Amino acid sequence: MSVLNNTNTALDASAPELLMDLHVKYIQELDTKKQDLEYWLTEHLRVNGLYWGATALHILGKPDALDHEKIVEYLVKCQHDNGGFGGHIDHDSHILSTLSAIQVLITYDRLDAINVDKVVDYVVSLQNEDGSFSGDSWGETDTRFIFCAMNCLSLLKRLDDKRLNLPKIIEYIVRCRNFDGGFGNSPGGESHAAQVYVCVGTLTILGALHHVDVEQLGSWLSERQLKCGGLNGRPEKMEDVCYSWWVLSSLSMLKRVHWIDGAKLTRFILDSQDSETGGIADRPGNMPDIFHTNFGIAGLSLLGYPGLVAIDPVYCMPRHVIQRIGLTDKH
Amino acid sequence: MDSDQQDDIPFYEKPEWADVVPIPQDDGPNPLVPIAYTKEYSTTMDYFRAISRSQEKSQRALDLTKIVIEQSPSHYTVWHYRQRLLEALSVDLSKELDWTQWMIGENPKSYQIWHHRQVVIGRLSAGGATSTSTISYRDLSETQQKTKRETVQVELDFIASALADDAKNYHAWSYRQWVLSYFGKGPWWDEELAYIDNLLTTDIRNNSAWNQRFYVVTLGPQGLTDEIVQREVQYTKTKIERTPNNESPWVYLSGILNKAKHPLSEVKEFCEGLLEVPRANFSSFLHSTLLDIYEQEAKVQKSAEIVNKAKGEAVMLAEKVDTIRSKYWNWRKDQLKDIVVDA
């Protein structure tokens, strides 16, 4: 099977092109912007940023555009004795940065550089009685953290850990399902496309997608597309490029991507590129950032944009990496 | 910055910091060239690293966490350290509430601040008359009831002020649900409905408020009685008549009927009536609700005529009212072929 997307997607002839070279340059230069206050204020997200950058570069077909060795060396320094990874050197362990670190290490095939057993100990330790997971030892809970834990343990092939209570996790996710078919951050929390992604992703990983009303949720998700082609995360909210990922990946897991207008969404993402600096913004005319750059490119890959490497809708990593570690039977 | 940080001398030039040796950032191989305005922040962080590495439990450490957090409100490691300091130093937590209120006003979308507020409230109410332990509100003494009510009210008012700035702030709503359920049964559940009604009067399209309505109506102490179902259906119909093209009340309407196990056909007449209203006739939600109603009805009655009505709605949606989702509506139309009808 070819790694690259086919070129048979219907495209709007007047749409701008994907500025691949410029985006590669934008990502490569992110780490050189230390004179910006923004660089310092996002310090706690440095490991997540690496994941967004590395993933986008792989999807753009430029896996070697960043120095692997330096990245691995840096990530090793972010792991704590408790097994978790912090968002940066000297930052406490958190499930969000732990998942990002594992994703990057697997993408570069360098799990050998870290102590995997300790990562598993850390992730398992965050499960609560009711099935949910905390983000760190401080106790904030959110369905995002369940997904991070399941994603991470699934990538490490350690979902069979005896300390985990998988039925409770499924039970908890089902409690977060709402009357509109969507999912929130906690039982009763408003449906939100990003929370839908993490809940559907968790159920997909655990082989429990039968708890989803595919038609109702698929319809709610396709309702997120606005006339401009972009997607929003909740009714009556503005469109935003990152929802190209949260909505589209969910529809993909439900096998319903064709329920939205792919050509219009493609156009919206392409219009959100910054043609001077590279990078993609939340919507046309705004400042780009690495988060929206990654999820914009990931969305285009799911839409089958020609020349992009295929992405996996569950793990948000290159499809060939997920195939390499033998996880493609998940969806 | 906060009011008590207004003197011009940076904290690290004050005598109480003279003994601390700042630890510079280990930031990988590249040399860093910070310009003046980031120097202030990076120096602060150098001191923070020194203090947190020794896990110093002191007033100056507490002050320093505040300085860092006010500059970088999502720095979760610093928040975490602050929590430990509050506990170790037995700080008056009511002051912490004032500060978090101010901080949330400045940074309404920071996960960390909202969670901090929740932890502080949890700790404050863990003892004394506001304890949510085993005693239910009904069984508390009058004074205890009053105290508990006031505690809840302070939180709900505070959240309402955040929602006044952004009525869809996800963190605020999430915390509001936590407060309601954390303090258990009490009069605040009934009052919540009036609050939601106010929000929906201001913005009938506020989906967060509709979600909260569902939360209160279905999880509230009264339960979803037939009387409440009728009241809600009536309420929602009025809102739909005002904004027929508004997704939220339509979803709410079918959500309530579904939850109460009532058939959607209870609102068939209402929907068919709306077809006569020119403004409503173009609502994709009206047509999709009719499609659902006819589809269900056709299955029960095995009637080719009703299948045709359903088909008409699907075609209307795919070709006129909601063309962007035409593939979905065409799929719905195809599904109708499988309905068994009497000859």
From TrEMBL, chain A:
InterPro entries in the cross-refs: PGGT1B-like (IPR045089), Prenyltrans (IPR001330), Ptb1 (IPR026873), Terpenoid_cyclase/PrenylTrfase (IPR008930)
Pfam family, one: Prenyltrans
Protein name: Geranylgeranyl transferase type-2 subunit beta
Record-stated family: Belongs to the protein prenyltransferase subunit beta family.
Ranges of residues in domain Prenyltransferase alpha-alpha toroid: 19-317
Record's cofactor remark: Binds 1 zinc ion per subunit.
Reaction catalyzed: geranylgeranyl diphosphate + L-cysteinyl-[protein] = S-geranylgeranyl-L-cysteinyl-[protein] + diphosphate
Keyword terms: Metal-binding, Prenyltransferase, Repeat, Transferase, Zinc
Annotated EC: 2.5.1.60
GO molecular function, one term: Rab geranylgeranyltransferase activity
Keyword Transferase belongs to the record: yes
Organism superkingdom: Eukaryota
Function (record text): Catalyzes the transfer of a geranylgeranyl moiety from geranylgeranyl diphosphate to both cysteines of proteins with the C-terminal sequence -XXCC, -XCXC and -CCXX.
GO CC field: Rab-protein geranylgeranyltransferase complex
Co-factor(s): Zn(2+)
Entry-linked CDD domains: GGTase-II (cd02894)
UniProtKB/TrEMBL annotation, chain B:
SUPFAM superfamilies the record matches: Protein prenylyltransferase (SSF48439)
Matching Pfam families: PPTA
Entries under Gene3D superfamilies matching the protein: Protein prenylyltransferase
First-tier enzyme category under EC: transferase
GO cellular component, one term: protein farnesyltransferase complex
InterPro entries linked to this entry: Prenyl_trans_a
UniProt keyword annotations, A-Z: Magnesium, Prenyltransferase, Repeat, Transferase
A Gene Ontology molecular function term of the record: protein farnesyltransferase activity
Full protein name: Protein farnesyltransferase/geranylgeranyltransferase type-1 subunit alpha
Species in which this protein is naturally found: Modicella reniformis
